[in-house]
Amino acid sequence: MDRHDAATRSTLVSVWVNLVLSIAQVAIGLLARSQALVADGIHSLSDLISDFIVIAANRQSGLAPDANHPYGHHRFETAASLLLGVLMLGVAAGIGWTAVTRLFSPASIPVVHASAIWAAALALLAKELLFRYMLTVGRRVDSKMLIANAWHARSDAASSLVVLAGILANSFGFPLGDPIASVIVAAMVARMGVQIGWAALSDLMDHSAADEAILAIEHAVAGVSGVRGFHDLRTRTVGDFVLVDIHIEVDEFLSVRDGHQIAESVHHRLKAIPRVLDVMTHVDPVPAASH
């Protein structure tokens, strides 16, 4: 199974899980008079929207390079991650505002029905299982977008745990437990939104590759016959991939053909490294005394 098929399949699983959860949580939350459960249901609904964003971005990022996108469409995944982050911040703001408003009028907070406890517990279990499944798939195909979506699901599981605690507190005579749980859920969603959004912004600002990827590149270049040294190694991320610029040093007395062949060897060696999308090499002649 390639990464696009894996992304589509895992996201469709998430779609169905979040669809059922959002409907059930909102409906039971309204009937059981639990603001926290309704908030968690809205959170699940935001996940459903994010799943459709992931599906669209996954399809777009898989398109072949064209005249307007010579490096491919991989940044669509980064843009999708940024949109997910913004979406989560919006959901957090809505949930937090409603909860804080309720906190200022505690007399209006009703006693939550016991059915909300069971609904929150089942939602917690479903979201934790979904997180583990999506994270496994994301790591297997090495997709930042899928991993981000998996951690989004984990934030949902954590929020369901908080909701369950708040509903239990309300049921045992602490009415503020329900809106306080809603405020905590809002804070958790906002924190995850900032993390996902900032990571996407870093990629859009041409963040360098991870240290282990840079070490692999340096090791590969050093192992190419004819390379006397290298400098000005630069990397930048494009979605889940890496672009490489490097200056290689060769004997000054080599012919243009030989220097070109060494550069081609470097190019092919680096392209063999997983996730290296393209390589730009510059050949610098150096005297023997500088080797």
From TrEMBL:
The chain crosses the membrane at residues 12-32, 82-104. Its main location: membrane. Keywords: Membrane, Transmembrane, Transmembrane helix, Transport. It is found in: Membrane. It is a multi-pass membrane protein. Residues 12-205 form the Cation efflux protein transmembrane domain. Residues 211-285 form the Cation efflux protein cytoplasmic domain. One of its GO terms (molecular function) is monoatomic cation transmembrane transporter activity. InterPro entries: Cation_efflux, Cation_efflux_CTD, Cation_efflux_CTD_sf, Cation_efflux_TM, Cation_efflux_TMD_sf, CDF_Transporter. The keyword Iron does not apply. One of its GO terms (cellular component) is membrane. Belongs to the cation diffusion facilitator (CDF) transporter (TC 2.A.4) family. NCBIfam families: CDF. This is Cation diffusion facilitator family transporter. It comes from Pandoraea communis.
